[in-house]
Structure formats: structure tokens, C-alpha cells
# Entry
Amino acid sequence: MSTQARDFRGVIRPVGAVVLGIGAMIAVCAAVALVWDRLSPDLTRPQGGALALGISAAIVCAIGATAFFYGRQFVSERISRREALLAVSLIWVSAGVCGAIPFVLGAGMSPVDSFFESVSGLTTTGATVITDIEARLSRPLLLWRSLIQWLGGMGIVVLFVAVFPNLGAGGKHLFRGEVPGTTAEGLRPRIAETSFALWKLYAALTLLEVILLKLLGLDLFDAVCHAFTTMSTGGFSTLDSSVGGFNRPSVEYVIASFMLIGSVNYGLYYGLIRTGNWRGLVRNIEFRSYVRIVVVAVTVLTILNLDVHDDVLTSFRYSFFMVATTISSTGYGTDDYTVYSSTALAIIIFLMFVGGCSGSTAGGIKIERAVLMGKQAVAQVQKSFRPASVQLVRMGKASISSQVLADVASFFLIYMGCLAVGILFVTLVEGVPMPTAFGAMLTCLSNMGPAPFHQGPDNFAAYSAGSKLFFVLAMLLGRLEFFTLFALILPGFWRR
Amino acid sequence: MNIVVIGLGEVGRHLLSVLDKEGHDIVAVDSSRKAVRYAEEHYDVASIVGYGASETLLKAAGVVRADLVVAVTDHDEMNLIAALAAKQLGAKHVVARVQGTAWSGWTEGIRYGLLGVDVVINPRVLVAQELSRIARSYGASDVVDLAQERVELVQIDLGDSRVLNKPLSAVELPAHTLVSAVVRDGNLFVPGGADVLVKGDRVYLIGRPEGVLAAERLFSKEREARRVCIVGGGVVGKALARELLQQEATVMMIESDLATAEEISGEFQNVQVVHGDGTDGALLEEEEVGTYDLFAAVTRADEINLMAALLAQRAGCKRTATIVQRADYTSIYRQLGIDIVLSPRTVASDQILRFSRSGGIHSLTVLADGQAEVVELTASPRCRAVNKPLHRMNLPRGSLLAAIVHGDDVIIPRGKDIVHPGDRVILMTTKDARATVERLFRPRGE
# Structure
């Protein structure tokens, strides 16, 4: 066995390129926010912040440019699988660090808090450590906070692959490092075009939501920020009381609808637009299961919540939003779920586990995986009394190979393992009750946002710095769906 | 361009690697999951597992909107049917590869419009023809016919020769010939008058066939092959024997299968057929292969070809030729001292690649593993390059206008020569210069 280390310096340049891109994004954000504050100032919020963004942009660009030019000498002809996994991991971590700088400079937050906030944004978790958003963050920072969520939603690596079309098969490896689902790719033969198509769709849907929210009378700033965090199924809000703060049923219905739209496989939308044929969407098993789950959950929750809300319509309004925000792993709040009955709460926890469709911006285990797991379980049970029968697991007409099933099963195992280890860790370190630790871990792994079973306010401000970093890791694991980051732990990854 | 490649064997994979680099939208199809996974892993292409000649699969692969559909599975009939079906479904160009002779015959390596398929290629026959041209040459290691045999491109590996160690301008090249490129230590360059050739260089000569033949004498000490020994009586062997007999060469063929050997003996009365193993050193000695001018090992098995050629070399044969299925092995063969190494895969992909380019390319020959290529095209009346002298054409560095075919006349152009609309031109370009050159010869506004 050889113990020689591999040469991984080929990843410096792509990572540098992404950091440079993030620097540019901060700069654009600063410029837009500056102009915005000049043209239509909002005196109810804290002022300033654009300068902090500008300085952050300069710092991040400098780091990115250095890496980009230093890495030039190590460029490998084609990014290998290993390099891709490492690059994706590094891109996410460094993007998290870069995204945190504006919070340190602009809001006087501690580095760890800023890092938590930044990664929570990028991974579209939406968990926050800021207890008083409205008093703490100025508009430029709020815009940045929403923008990183938007960037992380469809994926920074996917954006990178779309912008640099010459990566060839290396681009494919990068893409898979970030979007490991089974059906997300293949919209177009070339991966760069696939990525570009996904981003175009994503941007178009976001724009549509901005327009709708504006038409409903929301302030343009709030409309943009909420559209960013709805489509990415992230859940950062500009208000302390989240979307509930608007207290406008029409706004809630629009946002809930877009959260549901955002957690459907984007490949299905692409097929719909290209062929003009609804069949592909309607016949898709995952989509059908998704719709079924949503309909059943909304119905049951509406009935159960009649205890809390007086009439059916109000109960439907809050239940619909609750189901949408949970299954899409967005995490906006309009309703106080702590007063829900335990049956209602159980349904919400179930939805948190399942999450949205594969190939969407939602988190969680993903419906496709859940369905496959279920079918596989049934098939195995059937084998116990008919061992000779051939039990193929099917998704629609396509039969699923045992390779994929093993992949799904190990995903589930890793997910549950992480959850268990996380609960233990948080309980031991923080001394909180088991359900609290469970809520915190589940919300991080599923990239959901709010923290159920917590005493007091619905956020992470009270945790120690070490636990916050641990949650950061959990969020990254959940967003990159485990395999990418865990690959780096194995010694074989680094050895020749 | 939208391209569908059906069949991911040697040729299919090679096509994917080249087409992927050129930035096309490619869908790869094969019935083997393993082959498809390999393609997925290594190239930026979409892929489908399935039976290549089925209508549903072809539609799913998008042949309806495809600009080029290439059928290169191992089954001739499947290729033809897949190509035919793709054409019916609306594909712009379809190309099928065949390996037997039931469809292409013995003499035609390329057939146009057969059964409605745009192009049917038989690389084995093409390779045999190329080998026979090499046999006819004076020491070339490859010969390519261009412009319907009015221009020849030959590749010569320099041994001891009169042209060494002096500037190229001092070498008196025969009229109507040109040294278009030199490969030294694996790197290709376009030589100028001051460049000096050294032993081991690979030189590409281009020009009128009679001029090129005269030039070969200057560059090499070898003679035309009058006596040729062929190992392997398959499609390549038989097609080669046929061509060589037409050139009135003496042919001996070694075939290991008795029935095949007898059949060949009956078919070719002028061929001396020997039943035996081509890798049997004693047999080769006994048959005095050392006295033959050229030894061509053309069985289907790469190992047999290599071993037979090495044994023949030891037995004293001066020029050895082999075909190789796995084109990756080519450079290794050469290191081992085999003079001529041809690959049906490269021949097939050259023929197919020209359809992936815009603007009606008649032929395309890839040189030095893709570092450069020679293309043959008709100059459109509406392109930038026509009606002006060569020195004002602004050809980029690394490219060369090697020949102009004007009517029946072949001109090896100098600074003042002019390309007229409708002329066929032969261009050599390196990889970097290609895009610029293509722009010069493409009709304006396209």
C-alpha cells in the first residue's frame, strides 16, 4: 500500500474563481443597495451597511483573485471525480466564510455567528442567530442575506458550471458533487447548458414572484428579498415575525404557492416548457406522490387545527402555509405551531423528514428516495414469504437498479446516523432536553430553518460557539447530501 | 450541432472524445449499460441504454432534430437500419459503418446513398486501400488520396536520407510538392525555409501524385513493394490482396484457418496461400518472409498482428505493417519498430468527423493525434478567401493552403496564386488555427 498523497492543487483555480464571483456578487449587492438607499430611503430600518459590503467585496475579490492566479500553474486538463468532490466542498466552505464577512463588518456580529448565518443562508436552511433582525440589520445587509440564500438555492457550483462551459466531463463531476440526486441532470446533453437552463428557469420564477408580490402591494425591497428566499426554499425574512408579520392572506398564499413550486423537480418544468406537454409532469410518480402528500397533509392539518383557529378558512390559510413551508423546507412562519396538537406536530415532523422532490431547491430526504425506500421495503417483506419471486422496484415504467436502491438505502442510513449522532452531541454539550436537540438537528440536516421544541425564541442564538459550528457542518452535510463531504473523510480519498 | 452516436465501441468512443471537445450536443446510445456508463463518466454527453435500431429509442435520442446520426455498432444490419430509420425520422445526415462486404463490396470503402443512408463506410476496405497505396509508395508510412486522386498526402518517417541536416530551402523538392508539416518529438509544426530536418522526424508531403512519388525518392531509400506477405485472410486481407494484384505485385497470404485458406486459394489464383500460424517463427523463416518488401499483419487480433510483425522483422523483413483495433496502442507499436500502423477506427472517424463540420467538407484527415488536420473543401463564391492572391488572404499562423484544384489543374500555390470560386482547396491547419481558417472559407454571413 502506498501512502503517497495525491496532488489536489488543481482545485485552487476553480475555487478561486467562485470566490471571485462571490466577491463580485457582494460588490453588485453593495452598489444596488447604495443606489436603493439614495432613491427611496427607508428610515424605519438601521442605516448604512453599504460601505461594509463594499469593503467585504474588496477583501473577498482579493482572496479570490490571488487563488485564481496562483492556481493557474496547477490547472489539470480535466477535473477528476476526486478533485470535483474536493472542489465542491471547498467552494461551499469558502463561500460560507466569504458570505460571513459582511455580517462581521456591517452588523458587528461575532465571526462564528456570522459564519453560521452565512452558511444557514447558502444551504437554504434559514436558521438564524439574530434575535432582532429589524433593529440589527440595515437594508444592504438584508439584501445580501437574501441574495446568498438565492445563490445557494439553485447552487453556486451549478452556476459556476453554467458560466464556464468548457469544463467538459469535469463539469459533470462538479455538478454531481452538488446535486447528487438521480434525475436532476439530463435536460440537455451538455452539462453547462443543463446548468444554464436550470438557472434561467429559477431566475424567471423568482422574477415572476417579485412581480406578483409587488402587485399585491408589498414594498419592492420586501418583495425582492422574499422572492429570493422563497424560490430557494430558504426562509430568511426581513421581518422579525417572518411572513406572518405582513398579516396579509393574499401574500401568504402567493408565497406558499411559490414554495410548493420551488420544491418540484426543475427538470419537469423544463420538459413542460420545451414540449408544451403536461403529460411528463402529471405522469411523474414523484410529482404525483408530492401532490398527494401535500393535499392529504393540508386537509388533515386544517381539520386538526380547528382546535386552535376558529373557522375553517383561517385554519386552512395557516395550515396550507405550514405544509408548504415545511415540505419545501423553507421555514417561514405565519403561525405559532407550539400550540398545535401533538398529532399535528407529528405530521409537520414527518414533512420535515420527507422534504421536496429531487432536482428541486428543497431539502430533506426527498420524495423520490422516500418512495423508493417504501417500495423496496414492501418488496423485501414480500420476499419473506415468497422468496423465489422477482421483486423489481419500479418508478412509473422504469425499473430501478439495485445499485440505485443501495445508494438510496445508504443515504437513508447516513441521514439517520447523522441525526442520531447529532442529537447525542447537542444533548451532551448543551445539556438541552432530547426533543430540543432533535428539533435542532433535524432542522439543520433538512435545511429547514425554525427550531421546533425549543424553549423561548425560535432561533439558534443561545447555543455555544462550538455547537453553532457543529450545526454549520450539519447544514452543509444536508445541503450536499452527505456523500460529497463524507468522501473527504475517507483516507483512501487522499491516497494515491 | 446535435449529434447522436449509436454504438459505443472503439469508433463510437473515439468519436465522442473528439466531438465532445468540439462542443457539440451529443447523445450516446448503446445496448450495454457498461459502455454507456463509461461514456457518461468520461464525456460531457447525454446517454441512453437500449437497442439502437428501435423507433422509440431513436425518437428518445432526438434523431428527429439531429444534424448528424452515426451508427457504429458491431452489427452491420443494425447500423444500416438505425441510420435508415433516423433518416426517415428527419435526421439531416446519417452515416452507417459496416464491417462485412455484403453491403459495401470489396472495392468501395465508402458508398453514398446506399438504401437511402447518406454514407456507408467500410473502414476495413478503406484500410486495405490505404495499405495498398502505401505498398505502392517509396517508403511512406501513410498515403491519403485527396481530390479524387489528383492530390496525394504522404507521411514519411525519416531514416537516413539525403534531405537531413540542411535547411529546407536547400532541399530541391520536385515540382508541385510541398512539405506541409513536420512532427518532432510528438509535436507538430509547419516548417519554414530555415528549418532543418533531422533523423526521426515525421514529414507530411503534399502534392500531385507524380511529384510526390519523386519526392519520396528524395526522402527515403525504400522502393515500391513488389512482393508482399499478408497475414490474415479476413476482410482487410482479402481486400488488400485484391488491390495488390491489380498493382501486379506478388502476394503471399498466411491464414490459420484451413477452410478460409482454401477458399482464398480458390478465389485468388495468383495468391500463394499458406496454411499456418502467422506468429509461428519457424513458418515465417521457412517461407522466407525476409525476402518480401512488405509484411502486412491484418488479422482481427491486435496481439497476433504485433507478434507476427515483430517476428517478420527479426526474420529480416524491411517494412512491416499492422492494423490495430485499439488506436491507443499506435505509439507503442511504433516504439517497437513497426513501420506502418493503421487503425480502422481512425480511418472511420476521419470519414465521419467531416459531417460534424459546417460547409460541405469533402474529406478530413487528422494528423498527429489531432494536433492538425488536412481538410478538402470547395471555396464558396461568397467566402472571404476567393478572388485574392494568397499573400493577402490573411491565413493564420499554423495553417497552410496546400493545393488548389482548379478544373483538372492542380496548383501548389505561391503568394500570387488565387483561389477562384468553385475551386477545390486543400488546407492544412493546426488545432488553434482551425476556427479562423474555417471562417475564411465559409460563405459570408453564415
Summary: Chain B touches chain A through 14 residues (CB under 8 Å). Residues 155 and 381 of chain B are 32 Å apart (CA to CA). The mean pLDDT of chain B is 85.
